[in-house]
Amino acid sequence: MTQITKPLTDLEIALNSTMTHISEIANKVGIPEDALELYGKYKAKIDTTQLTHLTTEAKVVLVTAINPTPAGEGKSTVTVGLSDALQQLNQKVMVALREPSLGPVMGIKGGATGGGYAQVLPMDDINLHFTGDLHAITTANNALAAFIDNHIHRGNELNIDPRRILWKRVLDMNDRSLRHVIVGLGGPAQGVPREDGFDITVASEIMAIFCLAKDYNDLRKRLSQIVIGYTYDKQPVFVKDLAVEGALTLLLKDAFKPNLVQTIEGTPAIIHGGPFANIAHGCNSIQATNTARKLADIVVTEAGFGADLGAEKFMDIKSVQGDLHPDAVVIVATARALKMHGGVNKKELQNENPQAILAGIENLAKHVDTVRAFGIEPVVALNRFITDTEEEVQTIEKWCLDNNVAMALTNVWEKGGAGGLDLAKQVLAILEKPNNFHTIYDIEDSIEEKVNAIVQKVYGGAGAVFTDQAKKQIAEIKNNGWDKLSICMAKTQYSLTDQANQLGRPENFTVTVREVIPKLGAKFLVCLTGDVMTMPGLPKEPAALRMDIDEQGQAIGLF
Fold first, then answer.
1. Cβ contacts of residue 381 below 8 Å, gap of 6+?
2. Greatest Cα pair distance in the chain
3. Beta-strand pair 298-302/59-65
4. What domains, with CATH codes, occur in the chain?
5. Would you call 141 helix, strand, or coil by DSSP?
6. CA atoms of 159 and 286, how far apart (whole Å)
7. Is 121 helix (H, G, I), strand (E, B) or coil?
8. For the CA atoms of the chain, what is the radius of gyration?
9. 30-33, long-range: CB within 8 Å, 24+ apart, which pairs?
10. For residues 69 and 346, what is the distance between their CA atoms, to the nearest angstrom?
């Protein structure tokens, strides 16, 4: 009887891989010893103040995807595999990713280090506490909350209205019970009672500022500009009014330095910052990307979820604030996900269904149109699964050929960089050509014009509808002179619309903006749509139920 070998898990592959000492990885890209701060053998912080002499500006490859489905797309896996493939083609390349949040790691989504033989290592460390960056951001956020409540308790010199405090506490965990809380109970000695709530750490404005600041001075200035609430006569109160921006910057001092790690194939990787793309701007730090641009010739990076969220925010927010732009864009898709967008139930995805792929490929078509709207010609990476049939693959290839869309089959999960060589060659060809990159709205446009531009040009909808509350908030924002900022849409990742169950490529829909929240430190306005929440909850069976450690202290059940 033939014995069937069970495939290795991502964690088993990672733990069986041989890592190179991080100082050797640093040497590959010329990081001087004085700029390297070791966190053990395989992790290090980069002191960017020691790299000011470097002037290289590498080309940037942005990896995005179609709208995600439970079938999986493998965007981070393709990002890592592409960087390994470029290294195999003798390119001086670095990969730049976000740090995982413990909420999804312990919940349902999983980690953010790739998969199979296209992973960043040490995978278990990165997906857990890593170098403590998210804890530092959590601490800075909650220190500010403590300073606000202490100021009110000590006499409230700034006349802050406890009913109009915008600043929430955060926790890097999915915990629905903390969405709405009451603080200050127990009598005068315990503070002033008021309603409060928690967001997940990656939704904090401090996380956004952390990822958008260019240096320590910029970090401090942005922190000082955070609006924490309003006075009794409805005047805004800033962090600088509390005079604690210096303390907050100090708490972030070490975390602000980008983290250097490596892929399974030894490609240098920077992982830094971790905002979600459905409720924040979904990109790793400008510090990390620009550091990689100084050290390499090509930087491969990713933006969260589909091109309607992370990629749009990369190009309309990060590119503007970081003085950079993508030179090539990769859109990751799978036959399985396209079948789901075509109406197939997850339990039936293993069945061949080219007709469903043709129906679902309209979702891919919209993301191709979106990237082209920014002046860049994309490459589609078809991340192949073992269940994909030749007819299904040929259906996608024919659609791409008929629509003049470059496409490459990838199999980096199984083969690492070797499975992404075709994609790497196509990306290199695009990098040789000039593009006409531009944002899809002008920062000087009105709030309504900017939101409508996103809904119409990126989502493919008819336009935006603003609730009475949103209209009131917009009026206040205009009155305060804060309207000339970027827009950060908070929207479901599963659909082009604001309704998670509307898959494929819906048309003639509207997106309802229910709230508009100013984030002056991050220099954008958050527009909340649908039922998107800034503190997620855990699923019925969290991934944490499968996790443990063995007698040697190695992780078990981490994906």
1. 63, 78, 82, 330, 331, 332, 333, 407, 408, 410, 420, 423
2. 81
3. parallel
4. 10-129+257-431 (3.40.50.300), 133-251 (3.30.1510.10), 447-529 (3.10.410.10)
5. helix
6. 36
7. strand
8. 23
9. 30/295, 31/260, 31/295
10. 9
- Structural tokens at position 149: 């409540």
CA distance 368 to 362: 10
CA angle 101-106-107, nearest 5°? 95
pLDDT at site 1: 46
Residues 483-521: b if buried by 16+ CB within 10 A, e if exposed: bebbbbbbbbbbbbbbbeeebbbbeebebbbbebbbbbb
Say if residues 277 and 76 touch (Cβ distance below 8 Å). Answer: no
81, 410 contact by CB (below 8 A) = yes
Nearest to 234 by CA among 332, 317, 160, 339: 160
Determine contact, residues 93/238, Cβ cutoff 8 Å: no
At residue 4, the pLDDT reads 53
How many whole angstroms separate alpha carbon 335 and alpha carbon 342? 10
CA distance 311 to 330: 10
User: Can you tell me the distance from the alpha carbon of 58 to that of 292, in angstroms, rounded to the nearest whole number?
Assistant: 8
- The whole-angstrom separation of Cα 13 and Cα 124 is 11
Helix (H, G, I), strand (E, B), or coil: what is residue 85?
helix
What whole-number distance in Å separates Cα of residue 398 and Cα of residue 140? Answer: 52
22, 261 Cβ separation under 8 angstroms: yes
Residue 520 CA to residue 175 CA, distance in Å, equals 27
The pLDDT score that the predictor gives to residue 109 is: 65
Residue 357 · residue 333 · CB < 8 Å? no
Is-contact 301 329, C-beta < 8 A?
A: no
> Do 11 and 98 touch, CB atoms closer than 8 A?
no
- What does pTM read for this prediction? 0.95
Query: What is the torsional sign of CA 267, 273, 276, 277?
Result: negative
- Residues 86 and 226: their CA atoms lie apart, in Å, by 41
Low-confidence ranges of the chain (pLDDT < 50): 1
Q: What span, in angstroms and rounded, lies between the C-alpha atoms of 142 and 169?
A: 5
Secondary structure, 3-state, 319-345: HHHHCCCCCEEEEEECHHHHHHHCCCC
CA distance 201 to 207: 7
- Cβ partners under 8 Å of residue 189, min gap 6: none
Active site residues: 75, 77, 98, 109, 277, 305, 385, 413
Span 421-468, pLDDT tens digits = 999 999 999 999 999 999 999 999 999 999 999 999 999 999 999 999
Q: Which residue has the tokens 């393709």?
A: 78
CA dist 344 and 341 (Å) reads 7
Residues 6+ apart with CB under 8 A from 322: 212, 214, 286, 289, 290
Cα 500 to Cα 116: distance, rounded to the nearest angstrom? 29
User: Of 60, 66, 98, nearest to 82 (Cα)?
Assistant: 60
DSSP 481-515: T--SSEEEEE--SS-SSSSTT--S---S-EEEEEE
Of the chain, the end-to-end C-alpha distance in Å amounts to 30
